[in-house]
Amino acid sequence: MTAPLEHQTLRANGVALHVVTAGRADAPLVILLHGFPEHWGAWRRQIQPLVDAGWRVAVPDQRGYGTSAKPAGVGSYALDTLADDVRGIARALDAPRFSIVGHDWGGMVAWHLAAREATSIERLVILNAPHPATFFSFALTHPLQMLRSSYVGFFQMRWVPEAVLRANDFALLQAALTHSSRAGTFGEDQLAGYRAAWAEPGALRAMLDWYRAMPFAQPCTDEIEAPVRIVWGDADSALETGLVEAALPYCPNAEVVHLPHASHWLHHEEPQKVSSLLLEFLDASNAAALSDRRAQGLHER
Predict the structure, then answer these.
(1) C-beta neighbour count of 195 within 10 angstroms
(2) Sequence-distant (≥ 6) Cβ neighbours of residue 171 within 8 angstroms
(3) What does the pLDDT look like over 139-175, one tens digit per residue?
(4) Each residue's pLDDT tens digit, 15-57
(5) What is the pTM for the complete model shown?
(6) Which residues 6+ apart lie within 8 Å of 39 measured at CB?
(7) Looking at CB atoms within 10 Å, which of 142, 200, 231, 272 has the fewest?
(8) Which domains does the chain have, with CATH numbers?
(9) What's the alpha-carbon Rg for the chain, to the nearest Å?
(10) Active-site residue set
């Protein structure tokens, strides 16, 4: 990493969020959203290529994670609220329009925001995340997906999941990463960073409250107007590839790229490939934004 990273606390949607930014302040904005059980560092391999290509990159610890705020109450983690956080980050960074990339839970927030905020989103990239309007119905009609998602039911319990995940220095959470990815994908330094984030006061409760809020979610089912690229690791042990096809009716301007040998953690396992796919797809948005800024600059002169 050669681009300087700025760690800042932004007030967004009424809470304090830790957001890492890199790149020129006047460059087009792309926001990268991590999933469970990660934090902003999940995108460390994608930040530099995006900055080099002319992007301003913002990578938050989403609410409940890392050093961001962890408000009490399941209602604090409603899908609309999580999407409002992202919109608030963009406003705080003076970006009325922006692109968004989301993985896992970050992808579900990105799906919802792109459907709800047609005028704000330039382009959307989804990495192994089901459209929130399709997940439950797909699981109900696909027994294997229901089995793979059984942990979601366990997470609905109070206190017990927190105790189980905290045991033995977060051994189960570490295993959720290392046992479902290629050998060596997550090094000890990275795992140590995650353990520190999980140990933040209130973090485990807040992370699990994302799941506890799921039964009350009201996903936006409007068609997504922005161009969409879905990048899917087909060796995902938690999500079936059929979820890709289930999402397509909600995004008529979509394309799908399958990575046959990548798991759920594709941006860690194949960082160069994923970065290349991001840059290739986002470039049209970047070029348009640069052109608009140049035209505005000429007009101002």
Answers:
(1) 14
(2) none
(3) 999 999 999 999 999 999 999 999 999 999 999 999 9
(4) 999 999 999 999 999 999 999 999 999 999 999 999 999 999 9
(5) 0.94
(6) 61, 65, 66, 193, 194, 197
(7) 272
(8) 6-300 (3.40.50.1820)
(9) 18
(10) 104, 211, 264
